[in-house]
Amino acid sequence: MASKILCLIIMIAGFLPAITMATEYWVGGDKGWTLDVDYQAWAKDKTFKVGDTLVFKYTKGHHNVFKVNQTAFQSCTAPPPSEALTTGHDVITLAKPGKKWYICGVPTHCSDHNQKLVITVEDGAPAPAPAAPAPSAEYWVGGDKGWTIDVDYQAWAKDKTFKVGDTLVFKYTKGHHNVFKVNQTAFQSCIAPPPSEGLTTGHDVLTLAKPGKKWYICGFPTHCSDHNQKLVITVEGGAPAPEAPVPGPAPKKDDSNNSYKVTTSAYKIFVGGVVLIWTILTLV
Predict the structure, then answer these.
(1) Could you tell me the pTM of the whole model?
(2) Which of 79, 98, 126, 174 is the least crowded, having the fewest Cβ atoms under 10 Å away?
């Protein structure tokens, strides 16, 4: 009886190294998520894997967190406010491998104070490689001419294949144009929605999240009707759109003095099992 239990303990111990432990990284370490921190230096010596988590710790109301694409990262262009994480203790699980970009959307925090982070996430464990989906493409609408009047945007789009996950970049002089996503009727009649629905940054980035027809116009008077500043494309089903940030649990006790912590629940379960078996062994 004792020898059988001892064999069981040895078998459990043999499986322990195979348990992959996720890592929790506190972005910026002791400094947290704030202004004028070199986040690339902080990330340089770390290996991020699928299943790990990032914790953005900051004073609520002073900062926020946006997950963006490469173009928005480089230009410090924040998505709509509804996509922001704002709890002051934002937890993001790294669900897929690849490049990940994060910025603070408070004005000037990214552009003037370098509050931005880019990391590369590796696979958590080796697995048979599935057929690789086509990489997402980034299209600058109108090419060198950008988003302006008197350009044949249908000719520009004619030889391109737009897929789910691709992005459109509308580049123009801020205040001279804007971008509205409309339906077919509004496209044909050049009727712009309310101004609050317009994109106006001069560097507007739109991710193609669903397949189907998409219509865009400039809402400035006569730009669409008289100067053909309008675009219609067909989006095919392709790679899924980038995953949204995963909201974290309720705030927990501040432990920002640790740049990362290792989750050890699997190890605790193992130790508890060994203790239980040893107790049984001593009673036999």
Answers:
(1) 0.42
(2) 126
